[in-house]
Amino acid sequence: MDTFPQLLLTAILSSAVVSTVIGIVLHGFKTRAEARAKSRYAWKEQSVVELLAPLNMQFERTSLAFKRWGAKNLYLEMKVVKTGNEAIRDLLLMKGHLIPPDLRTEAGRLIEHYDVWLEKFEKQRLSENPDLNAPFVFVGPDGYPFPSDAEQKFRETFKTYWNDLYGK
Description:
4 helices; rod-shaped
């Protein structure tokens, strides 16, 4: 028959073993949660630095070009809008892994618009017989208008992510 001191020692040892096991399990959960949080932070920062900030600058650049556009301006069209459109499309294609999941549909719409615009630009401005009299390359009547709501969502996400990472 066990004596009281033996029972007490067994209870203390059992309690210590259970506490240690619980501590190890909770530490594992905490470590995994911290690793996930660091991973999310690193992905969000990479998304801002490599995709969202450059996109935002290109959106701003092409937007400013359209505001300056009065009459036909081949320089703005060829050097600013075309290069901006290519840069945006290429960023979305090359950095697809950094597109926030809730913006993937918008990214597809932007890519489609830029693909169609660049195709029409090639035909209208760079063919053997370019149409230099057309005021500008426009694909809206062809059923591919610029998805301004998609641009706006990317700009809003950039601001949100930036504020989350770095503050206002």
